[in-house]
């Protein structure tokens, strides 16, 4: 019975999401638009996985040695969760910059909720458009711009919202890129 209910709920959510995706709003009439991935998926070789497994194993051994079983369980859960999540490939989403706001996939951010934007353009490593959004737990919206012209994006957005000059890539994002997480 519970399984049937879960299936019904999943199907209903999928139907609502599909209908929401088909609805055309004023955010869909963009000045600039492009396709991008939800996040960067880095290629990892066998050596990367060997090192990752060794590091997690060392943490687990240390946790058992120090009798910190909670930390050992957390490391095991982290390793398993990361392995499962790595099987999933990033989905392609459409990014639309309209005169009313930003639309990324089905998510909409009116310009009234945007504090500032900044571009980090250091090809071939980093090509992102970033937004600081109000009422988001200090989490920035980061969009890959790949082959888009950053000057055109800056010109379009600069007339609507303030640009945060001199802002650099966050340390966490640099670490994720460096470690290929």
Write the SSE topology.
Elements: H1 2-22, E1 30-37, H2 46-65, H3 69-86, E2 92-98, E3 101-104, E4 107-110, E5 114-122, E6 126-133, E7 140-144, H4 150-158, H5 171-179
Antiparallel strand pairs: 1-2, 2-3, 3-4, 5-6, 6-7
Summed up:
This protein has 181 residues and is α+β, with helices and mostly antiparallel strands. It is 43% helix and 25% strand. The strands form two sheets. It has a four-stranded antiparallel sheet with strand order 1-2-3-4, with helices on one face.
Describe the overall structure.
The protein has helices at 2-22, 46-65, 69-86, 150-158, 171-179, and strands at residues 30-37, 92-98, 101-104, 107-110, 114-122, 126-133, 140-144. With 181 residues, the chain is an alpha+beta fold. It folds into two domains: 24-39 and 92-179, PH-domain like; 46-86. Helix 2 packs antiparallel against helix 3. The longest helix has 21 residues, at 2-22. The chain is globular, with a radius of gyration of 21 Å.
Characteristic terms for this protein:
181 residues, PH-domain like, 43% helix, 3-stranded antiparallel β-sheet, 25% strand, alpha+beta, 4-stranded antiparallel β-sheet
Which CATH class of the largest domain is shown?
Mainly Beta
- Per DSSP, the total helix count is 5
> Any guess at the CATH architecture of the largest domain?
Roll
Q: How many discrete structural domains?
A: 2
Proportion of residues in helical segments: 40-55%
Low-pLDDT runs of 5+ residues are none
Biggest β-sheet strands, sense, barrel: 4 strands, antiparallel
**Global Rg:** 21 Å
Major beta sheet, strand line-up: 1-2-3-4
State the shape. Answer: globular
Strand residue percentage:
15-25%
CATH T-level fold name of the largest domain: PH-domain like
Tally the beta strands: 7
């Amino acid at each position: 019975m519970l399984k049937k209910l879960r299936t019904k709920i999943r199907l209903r959510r999928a139907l609502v999401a599909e209908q929401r995706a088909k609805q055309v709003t004023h955010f869909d009439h963009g000045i600039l638009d492009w396709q991008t991935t939800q996040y960067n998926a880095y290629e990892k070789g066998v050596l990367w996985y060997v090192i990752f497994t060794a590091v997690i194993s060392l943490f687990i051994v240390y946790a058992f040695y120090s009798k910190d079983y909670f930390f050992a369980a957390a490391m095991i859960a982290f390793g398993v969760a990361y392995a499962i999540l790595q099987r999933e490939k990033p989905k392609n989403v459409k990014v639309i910059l309209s005169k009313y706001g930003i639309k990324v996939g089905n998510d909409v951010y009116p310009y009234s909720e945007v504090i500032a934007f900044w571009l980090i353009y250091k090809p071939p490593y980093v090509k992102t458009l970033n937004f600081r959004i109000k009422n988001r737990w200090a989490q920035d919206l980061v969009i890959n711009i790949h082959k888009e012209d950053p000057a055109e994006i800056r010109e379009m957005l600069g007339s609507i919202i303030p640009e945060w000059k001199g802002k650099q890539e966050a340390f966490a994002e640099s670490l994720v890129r460096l470690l290929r997480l």
